[in-house]
Amino acid sequence: MQNNRFSHASRILAVAATGLGLLLAGCGTAITNLTPAALPQNPSQIYTLSARVTPQAATIVPGSLVVHIVIDGQDHQMTRSELGEGIYTYDHQAAAGSSELKYYILADYDTKGPGGVLTHQEDFIETQHASISGRYILQLETNRGPVGAPIGVIGRGFTAQDVVYVGPSPARTVFESANALSFYVPALEGGRNYEVQLVNPTGSTFAGTFRVDASSVNVSPAALTLRQGETQPLTFNLATPATAGGVLLDVTTDAAESVIMPEVMVPAGSSRVTVNVTGGKPGSGSLFLKGFGSGEVVVPVTVTK
């Protein structure tokens, strides 16, 4: 909300008047807050607050405009920025341990009325809030990749409780340090964009948008018949070689007691991997690999005595 006012005291009256449905005179400037609602914590604890102030009235006296920011009751003059026309900034030294900044922005100027009479005017926007966060995400290592590819996340304040969600699906997440973690692209439909969220018990943080690229895999043999305790090789062939970090193939089964096999990881630079599958208890079911080709690769498995 932006209002017109003549003094700090009149601002208080203006706020009270608003509760009674009263409005002050029209504004001579348009004030737009450009400060993000969340500011990443930095070692110097200095935070740049910015706003765009655009004169709206032709009667404003050139050179009379002065922009202020009031933080914790302290009035500071903002300076013109080279970032763009009408942009003003102020570098605020926050107190140690601050988690939020509360401020409002003022625009003082003179207007010239009939007969050349000068009148001092002041516009303002109501109290704004900016949180200071020790936990934030700078970027995803890349914004696209196939199912199973490892993707790095760079930021600050990560914990071992963090789980990356790609769209609705939780991804296998690897905590590396407070500033880095990675996740494997979960089995999702290819050729689509998904929002990435970093989730932990305290909430979620938007990490970016990720495109899951369509990919294909060939599995040989197409079906397995094993005796209990017998082992047979199963080979997975990708259409393209795996990049750095390899490609994790998240193979699941509906016959867990009948199928014994290791995790399937295609090494970096290779397009194929072979694993040994061992027959467990007699029974039948399938191996499933989602996110490839038409959506799911199915390998029937039968285990006999």
What is the secondary structure topology, with strand pairs?
Blueprint: E1 2-5, H1 8-19, E2 29-33, E3 38-40, E4 46-55, E5 66-71, E6 74-77, E7 79-80, E8 87-93, E9 100-112, E10 118-133, E11 136-140, E12 144-146, E13 150-156, E14 163-166, E15 169-170, E16 172-177, E17 180-184, E18 192-200, E19 203-213, E20 217-220, E21 224-227, E22 231-238, E23 247-249, E24 251-253, E25 259-260, E26 264-266, E27 272-279, E28 283-290, E29 296-304
Helicity, in percent? under 10%
Structural class: mainly beta
Output the CATH topology of the largest domain.
Immunoglobulin-like
Order of secondary-structure elements:
EHEEEEEEEEEEEEEEEEEEEEEEEEEEEE
Q: Biggest sheet: strands, sense, closure?
A: 6 strands, mixed
Parts with pLDDT < 50 across at least 5 consecutive residues: 4-26
Number of contiguous helices = 1
CATH homologous group name of the largest domain: Immunoglobulins
Per DSSP E runs of 2 or more residues, the count of β-strands stands at 29
Oligomer: single chain
CATH architecture of the largest domain: Sandwich
Gyration radius from CA atoms, angstroms = 30 Å
Fraction in beta strands: over 45%
- The shape is elongated
